[in-house]
Each structure stands twice: as C-alpha cells, then as structure tokens.
Specification:
- A two-stranded antiparallel sheet has the order 1-2.
- The radius of gyration is 16 Å and the shape is elongated.
- It has 4 helices and 2 strands.
- The N and C termini lie far apart (about 45 Å).
- The protein is about 70% helix and about 5% strand.
- The longest helix has 29 residues, at about 60-90.
- Strand 1 (about 50) and strand 2 (about 55-60) form a beta hairpin.
- The protein is mainly alpha-helical.
C-alpha cells in the first residue's frame, strides 16, 4: 500500500463528501478509491468512515486522523514547493 496515496484518497473523500466525487477528482475508479481507503483503515486498525448508501460520516478516529492528515499533506506540499523553488533559483558568484 502506498500510504501517502491512501491518505490523500481518504482526505479527498472527506473533502468531496462522496467516493464518487473524490474518484472523479483523483481520476480513479470508485472501487479503486474505496480499496485505498479500506487499505488505510486496515493498516491503522481503525474505521475512519461510517458508510451507508446515502451517507458518509467520519468516525471519532476519522475526525482526528483527518485533521492531522490535512496538515501533513499541506506540509508536504510546502516542502515540495520550497525544494523546487530553491532548485530553480539562479546561482551566481
């Protein structure tokens, strides 16, 4: 399991409020997206989402994990931006 991809999938599902919409954003099939989230839950040993045919809601563990996951992904984006901007900066003597 690619943990980062699974975490990103989970965050997108929560932000979009549905597996179908998140799958469209990530350009994945709904079943592949669902499998990523299920793999993440299995890895963590905790259910993050309560799913019904009509409703998707975060569990208590899911709420806590979502808050941290959003921050981790934002930190990673910032780190990548810093790395690419410093690599692209002209150097001279």
């Amino acid at each position: 399991m690619d943990r980062l991809a699974a975490i990103d999938a989970f965050v997108r599902v929560v932000e979009q409020g549905s597996f179908v919409r998140a799958a469209g954003v990530l350009e994945l099939s709904t079943s592949a997206l669902s499998q990523r989230v299920a793999d993440l839950e299995a890895h963590l040993g905790a259910r993050l989402l309560d799913r019904t045919t009509r409703k998707l809601s975060l569990t208590e563990s899911g709420q806590a994990f979502f808050r941290r996951a959003v921050q981790v992904l934002a930190d990673l984006d910032e780190a990548e931006m810093l790395a690419t901007s410093s690599a692209a900066a002209p150097r001279g003597f």
